Amino acid sequence: MRFWILDFRFWIVRSGNWKIERITNYQLPITNYQLSTVNCQLSTVNCQLIND
Q1: Tens of pLDDT along 8-44?
Q2: CA-CA distance, 37 to 28, in Å (whole number)?
Q3: Within 13 A of 31's CA, how many CA atoms are on the CB side?
Q4: Domain segments of the chain: what residues?
């Protein structure tokens, strides 16, 4: 019974880490999208400066 409790706690810890990893993986694409949007705006400004 003691081993089962240890395994059960270990499963809870693993599932908690999985949730953290899923949240992190979900936030990273949003950050990359915001960065790419900023880069697009910066390149647009640079293009306007060159054209001017």
Answers
A1: 666 666 666 666 666 666 666 666 666 677 766 666 6
A2: 14
A3: 6
A4: 1-52
